[in-house]
């Protein structure tokens, strides 16, 4: 049996210091630093320090001299922990890394701050809060890259605002569009996803509820009024939103952030999928600024960034599904396993968003259009791309069946312009002067230019009339000072005998 020292126990041990360097995840390689184990550990320590700061903010140190109060807070802020691997292994026994971390921090803390480290808190308070700290910071980086991508897409769309191209539906040529309109649609998807992600980021709350989510330990330490103030002070110290209540098993902060990240990756995935498709050799309308090479085929310029972005977009929804599954199974006052599912899953979603957004910003910044290929593809069907327009414009003149016959004949190789010309001449003896315009794809791009410049919400508002609604009541006539109310309303004049009228319905006068 072949033996390879690469897989020896010694080699495995030597490599165990960094399990995932991105070797099998090129979309994230070089972009995962904001969610690394080291950053998570720093956030855990920051959450513990923030709890001490929150205690000081609500007056827990009143019996201590003012100078010593500040020293306690500063000592808490100076706490450090850096042995990720040791804490990870030590955390196996208790099911999370907070338990050994607290022991480490209390061991290293001075006598004044030691009693306040983790006081009254539970592991979930610290771990949830730390993940929210990491998520908020990483999401801020993603938002900046989405802004860059949206700005580059806006420039690209305006540059190619009027460049007519073939729109495709279900992989086939449909009607004319423009390169700019397609890019504007990408931009709108990215912009909307960016707004939703920003909202989710700003709503990320701190977690502080004690062992069972009732804050009982904090009430015991501080009394009910100060205990009620503590979560808000804790949130302010961490830079997170103040929670309206402990969310130990109400996992909306995780699922809402996960959904927003997936929407952002969806939007980037659409861009990448279109670029990959339109850069195919036989289409060739788009090309990345820096194409990827091939190990065996030197003629290839692979759309490498698009491929990587698509890989992230394809992975993301399944991660969000795992978050929702965990949220649905968050039982009791702390989930047994479902909580643990969230940690690596949310981090992987953030990692994908960090990598994909960075690649997307670079992709659209360097995106190039081959105008000759665009024009060539537009003419591939020899004018049939305006068939919809012909049906609308010529149907009332020639009849829909005759127009269908013309399109069919053109599809078999006939000259579309000549077919239309002959049909119109036979129908009414005159051919309109605008026939060339009728067959011109550039004259049938609808509101494509306006969609690049803005959106349809800026159009004037038109009130839609409901034909089934009752007519509005007529306003009363002018005031009559001589009407004392004794006059009966005038009856409508009889219009003749109706043999079908019901004489007892009260609507007809009786003879």
Automatic annotation (TrEMBL):
Residues 468-479 have a biased composition (Pro residues). Pfam families: Lyase_1 (PF00206). The keyword Lyase applies. Residues 462-511 are annotated as: Disordered. It comes from the Bacteria. Residues 484-497 have a biased composition (Basic and acidic residues). InterPro entries: Fumarate_lyase_CS, Fumarate_lyase_fam, Fumarate_lyase_N, L-Aspartase-like. Keywords: Lyase. Residues 48-315 form the Fumarate lyase N-terminal domain. GO terms for molecular function: lyase activity. The keyword Lyase applies. PROSITE patterns: FUMARATE_LYASES. Transmembrane segments: none annotated. Belongs to the class-II fumarase/aspartase family. This is 3-carboxy-cis,cis-muconate cycloisomerase.
């Amino acid at each position: 049996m072949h033996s390879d020292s690469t897989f020896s126990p010694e080699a495995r041990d030597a490599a165990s210091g960094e399990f995932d360097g991105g070797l099998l995840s090129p979309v994230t390689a070089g972009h995962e630093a904001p969610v690394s184990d080291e950053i998570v550990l720093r956030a855990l320590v920051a959450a513990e320090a923030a709890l001490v700061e929150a205690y000081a903010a609500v007056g827990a140190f009143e019996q201590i001299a003012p100078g010593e109060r500040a020293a306690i807070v500063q000592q808490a802020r100076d706490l450090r922990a850096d042995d990720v691997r040791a804490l990870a292994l030590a955390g196996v026994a208790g099911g999370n890394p907070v338990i050994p971390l607290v022991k480490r921090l209390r061991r290293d803390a001075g006598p004044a701050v030691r009693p306040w480290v983790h006081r009254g808190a539970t592991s979930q308070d610290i771990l949830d809060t730390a993940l929210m700290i990491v998520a908020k910071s990483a999401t801020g980086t993603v938002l900046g890259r989405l802004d860059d991508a949206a700005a580059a897409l806006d420039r690209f769309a305006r540059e190619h605002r009027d460049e007519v191209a073939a729109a495709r539906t279900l992989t086939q040529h449909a009607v004319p569009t423009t390169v700019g309109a397609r890019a504007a649609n990408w931009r709108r998807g990215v912009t909307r996803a960016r707004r939703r992600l920003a909202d989710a980021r700003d709503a990320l709350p701190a977690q502080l509820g004690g062992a069972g989510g009732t804050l009982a330990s904090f009430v015991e330490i501080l009394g009910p009024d100060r205990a009620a103030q503590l979560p808000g002070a804790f949130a302010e110290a961490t830079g997170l939103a103040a929670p309206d209540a402990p969310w130990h098993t109400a996992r909306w902060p995780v699922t809402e952030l996960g959904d927003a990240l997936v929407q952002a990756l969806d939007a980037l995935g659409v861009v990448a999928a279109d670029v990959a498709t339109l850069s195919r050799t036989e289409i060739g309308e788009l090309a990345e600024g820096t194409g990827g090479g091939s190990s065996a085929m030197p003629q290839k310029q692979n759309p490498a960034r698009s491929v990587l972005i698509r890989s992230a977009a394809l992975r993301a929804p399944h991660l969000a599904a795992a978050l929702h599954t965990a949220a649905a199974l968050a039982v009791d006052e702390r989930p047994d396993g479902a909580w643990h599912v969230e940690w690596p899953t949310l981090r992987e979603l953030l990692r994908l968003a960090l990598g994909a957004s960075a690649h997307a910003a670079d992709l659209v910044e360097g995106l190039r259009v081959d105008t000759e290929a665009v024009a060539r593809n537009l003419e591939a069907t020899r004018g049939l791309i305006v068939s919809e327009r012909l049906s609308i414009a010529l149907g009332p003149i020639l009849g829909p069946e005759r127009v269908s016959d013309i399109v069919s004949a053109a599809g078999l190789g006939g000259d579309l312009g000549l077919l239309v010309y002959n049909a119109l001449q036979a129908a009414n003896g005159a051919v309109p002067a605008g026939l060339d315009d009728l067959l011109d794809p550039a004259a049938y791009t609808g509101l494509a230019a306006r969609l690049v410049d803005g959106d349809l919400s800026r159009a004037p508002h038109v009130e839609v009339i409901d034909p089934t609604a009752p007519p509005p009541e007529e306003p009363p006539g002018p005031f009559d000072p001589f009407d004392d109310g004794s006059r009966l309303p005038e009856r409508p004049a009889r219009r003749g005998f109706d043999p079908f009228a019901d004489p007892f319905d009260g609507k007809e006068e009786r003879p």
